Amino acid sequence: MRPPKHSPLFMAIALALAIMLFISYPIPVYAIAVAPIIAILCTTIGGFLVGWSFAHLTSVEARSPGVTLDSYVSEIASAFEHDVQTMSNYGYTVLASLERMRLYYARLAEHRVLDYLHINSSYLDEYEAEIMIDVADDFCNLTDAYFTSLSNLLHHLHWLSYDRFTGDLGQYNIYLTKDPTNFAYPDAHNLDDIMELFVFYHAKEDVKVYDCKAKVIAIAEAGSNLDARKNLILAGQVDVGIAVKEGASGTIDYDLHKHIIVFRDDGDAENIAVIDLKYNLEKWHVLDIANYIDSIYDTAWSYAKAYHQMLTSMGYTSKYQVPDSLLAIPPDIVFPTPWYLEETYHMTPEEVMAYYVGLLNSISKWFNESNYKLVKYLDHQNVTMPDVREHLKNVTIKFPNGTTYMNVTKLIPIWYPGKQTFYPGQDNVLKNPMGALVQLPNGEWQYIQLPSGYMINPALVHTPLGDTTNPWTLDSYPAGFNPIYENYQSPEPEFVKTMNEVVQLIIAFMPLLIILAIMQMIVNLGKRR
């Protein structure tokens, strides 16, 4: 037996009564998940509109002029420009990775300098290449991988020119030029006529370099040109550009101003696409990476020298004489337990995790910057960090150029050197690097580090007092607890209902159920007649 089919009038009256009852009864129904219901309705309506639009569009016959030679070359140029942007993003990834490795290399250099305690500190500079060889070799591997990636991309561009642009595409060429309107040699190079492209450094002054092949430190005179794949810049100012090894003569053209790539139709004398890598290859952040490596190397070397000076001043001449207490100092600190944080500060599990990561980072930073000063104790009140109960929701993280880096559901700052106000709904440029715990849309949690210059655009700011779209100031507090929440009591979780509220909810529905039953009886009586 099929269930009775209600009339449209009955359904309309029932719906109207339901709405009126929900409006008229002041019952605490905050536990009802309103957001999912709204989301379902919006999705249904939106899906209907999108489906209708799609059906309308597909019902119209497509008309296309077809693929032309120009459009084909334009697509190739667009694909290459996408690869250029990918390498730009790769540069940001390398920068973020380098910052995370700074203190690792400081520890590596300190470990190595223990073998040179018999050397007087005044003469330690003479052994720099030997002491820093582990650090330098790592940077050489990183440098080779990074600049080889750039060289491979340039090699691909060269391949497109001599291998792809043939036959019907023979009138198309790719140029490396300083001016997109001038393609005459030597101001420009037709890539059909060259043998190799690679990135090089040009010394603006005498610069200190580490030769990755010879494993020695040397001074390159002003005006020197160095293969970026094989040399580290340790001190001094350099420019960077694309070197062109010519096919006929084998000579290498080191011209810093040739940084514009042009896809051109020489038959019609028209430019199909122009890609400007900018002076110093700014598009690829090459100098930023070189300067970062130099900075991290300097940090490691200064830490090693300070550590050496401290140990030798204490009379040690061999690493075997150094007591364990001077090799590593464990933090004398009592960590708050997870359940203490949950009960006392009403933290969620992810906030507890973020707190521990931030606390460990702050402690390690204190010890790393203390240059092995001996201390009797470290009270946790000496550690400052952001309050992880304050975080950002539905955040878009962008590269400095505005390209989206990632979208996250939550972003919990766990360290930030400074103070900054963030405005929801706006691109907030980071004034300093930031370490944060983020939740991806799939629910996975990750720890990330963002360099200064990145942009953060949150939809909401979450605090123990609730979500808000008001400006929020990120600051550090003793032990990571904002005193504004000291007397704050956590509200009852939304999914908890008391029996009284359940009874109220049932009573609220009773009139509706009775009216519906009476209406159903009336409808049935009408049918029996």
Q: Describe the biggest sheet?
A: 7 strands, antiparallel
Shape: flat
Number of helices: 10
Distance between the termini: 20 Å
Q: Compute the gyration radius: what is it?
A: 33 Å
- Indicate the percent of residues in helices: 40-55%
- Stretches with pLDDT under 50, minimum 5 residues: 21-64, 328-334, 370-382, 491-499
Beta content: 15-25%
Report the strand count.
22
| Mean of residue pLDDT values | 75
Derived structural class:
alpha+beta
Task: Briefly say what this structure is.
The protein has 529 residues and is of the alpha+beta class. 41% of the residues lie in helices and 22% in strands. It is built from ten helices and 22 strands.
Explain what this protein looks like in three dimensions.
The structure is a single chain. This protein is of the alpha+beta class and 529 residues long. Helices cover 41% and strands 22% of the residues. It contains 10 helices and 22 strands. The protein has helices at residues 8-24, 34-59, 69-113, 128-131, 133-164, 286-313, 324-327, 338-345, 349-369, 499-528; strands at 172-177, 188-190, 194-203, 207-211, 216-220, 225-227, 231-235, 238-246, 252-254, 260-265, 270-276, 384-385, 391-398, 404-415, 420-422, 428-429, 434-439, 445-450, 455-463, 466-468, 472-474, 477-478. Strands 13, 14, 16, 17, 18, 19 and 20 form a 7-stranded antiparallel beta sheet that branches. A hairpin with a 5-residue loop joins strand 8 (238-246) and strand 9 (252-254). The two termini are 20 Å apart. The model is unreliable at 21-64, 328-334, 370-382 and 491-499 (pLDDT under 50).
